[in-house]
Amino acid sequence: MQENTEQKSVNRRSSVIRIVYLDRAGLPARFKVRGPSVTHEWVDYPSTTPEQVVERGYGADILVTNKVKITEPILLACPTVKHIAVSATGFNIVDTQACAKLGVSVSNIPSYAATTVAEHVITSALCLRRELLSYRQSVINNEWQASASFCLFGKPLNDLNTSVFGVVGLGELGSATAKKAAALGMRVIYSSRNQKPCDYAEWVSFDELISSADIISLHCSLTTETENLIDTPELQKMMPHAILINTARGGIANEAAVVNAIENNLIGGISFDVMVDEPPTNNSPLLSIANRNNVIITPHSAWASEQAMQSLVDILGDNVDAFLLGSPQNIVT
What we know:
This protein has eleven helices and twelve strands. The protein is elongated and about 80 Å long. The longest helix is centred in the last third of the chain and has 19 residues. With 333 residues, it is an alpha/beta fold. Strands 8-7-6-9-10-11-12 form a seven-stranded parallel sheet, sandwiched between helices. Strands 2-1-3-4-5 form a five-stranded parallel sheet, with helices on both faces. It folds into two domains: 127 residues, Rossmann fold; 184 residues, Rossmann fold.
């Protein structure tokens, strides 16, 4: 063990690095996180409640978290913690301002889900534009079997080609999705805090995007600025056939307002992979419309292809190792 290197990269109470994974059950057990190359102790907890974080994190050098919130009081109560490795792209669960103040670095995994999330979005768009759920149900209901013709005409079908695809937030996931949409012949527009030149999407204002897109895909972070970004006024501006897809974070769209929009035919359909409360309760607003043919609700699984999860654990292991070796990577603060 390179003692001098470790002393420069982490302040610890003993000679053995202690790493605590607070919610290991967020990944299937078959995916193994590679431990760092230095001598260490790695402790996994399937899940951790807010009341258990300090007890479990006390004495740790590194905390690994997916959904467990790390606040300033927790950091103050766990002074040995010098790095937080977030096992996801989004890091809104961590108080990054407190981390910066207390000298705690934070890493995330920025690129592992680009392909899987983009494919989920495009699949959702195809399913809803082509009314796959509706036509599947018509066969189950024996409607095709009773048809006087060789085919069954039900709800109108629409191509993706030439439709307008709107992307809110052109980060890595938004960009990957926009490229796939463009490759399928869609006109891609985007709205983002930073206007960036690209040859596959055109920047427009947020108001223009929500009022002119046939398909709207959310890819922005959840912040105080983007909470309820899609609410009743925005839904009312959308075209009546518009499809709203959210694979970003629950809370970016007001769930009650979205339910109202579906029930009153203000928009054409939704595909939501995220909710405000996860897992949701049976009283969740979105679950009340989950059985509709123009609604797709999936259990936060857009990121979870086999290939993406393997990439995640590989990068997570690399992030921890890089920090301990004094060359941190994927640092967000």
